[in-house]
């Protein structure tokens, strides 16, 4: 079953990341938030949640812990005070260099080439979008 293969692969990926992130004091979800902010800093909590696939009730405590650790800052938007914007601190941005080493380790652990991983990511992303679109439509 495809669902089992994807589920198992997701757990295996997390298992690869866990020991690589431990020396940095990061959990896998925290790493995902940092990686998202490294690609585009200054996102709203809603945008981050959509990008990393976490609901606000899970993301908010995670961001609070990251803020306490000095990795991110949360502030109300000047345009709409209901919106909370998350930005990297200098410490959070500095972890980007270490992430490059982690990325290389994960690449090696995958046993795939860079073009193969890019293709796989594209296919999984297309699958996710199709499934989300189906789930959102009235059946």
- The second-level CATH architecture is Orthogonal Bundle
Question: What is the percentage of strand-forming residues?
Answer: 5-15%
- Overall pLDDT: 93
Shape: globular
Secondary structure class reads mainly alpha
Number of strands: 3
N-to-C SSE string, H for helix and E for strand: HHEHHEEHH
* The first-level CATH class name: Mainly Alpha
Radius of gyration: 16 Å
So, the CATH homologous superfamily?
Winged helix-like DNA-binding domain superfamily/Winged helix DNA-binding domain
Largest beta-sheet characterization: 3 strands, antiparallel
Strands of the widest sheet, in order across it, are 1-3-2
Specify the number of helices.
6
Low-confidence stretches: none
| Whole-number count of domains | 1
- Helix share of residues? 55-70%
């Amino acid at each position: 079953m495809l669902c089992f293969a994807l589920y198992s692969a997701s757990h295996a990926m997390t298992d690869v990341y866990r020991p690589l992130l431990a020396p940095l004091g990061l959990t896998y979800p925290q790493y995902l938030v940092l990686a998202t902010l490294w690609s585009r800093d200054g996102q709203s909590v809603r945008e981050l949640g959509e990008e990393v696939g976490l609901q606000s009730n899970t993301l908010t405590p995670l961001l609070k812990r990251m803020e306490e650790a000095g990795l991110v800052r949360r502030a109300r938007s000047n345009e709409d005070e209901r919106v909370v914007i998350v930005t990297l601190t200098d410490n959070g941005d500095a972890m980007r260099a270490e992430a490059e080493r982690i990325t290389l380790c994960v690449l090696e652990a995958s046993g795939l080439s860079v073009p193969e991983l890019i293709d796989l990511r594209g296919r999984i992303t297309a699958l996710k979008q199709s499934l989300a679109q189906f789930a959102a439509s009235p059946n």
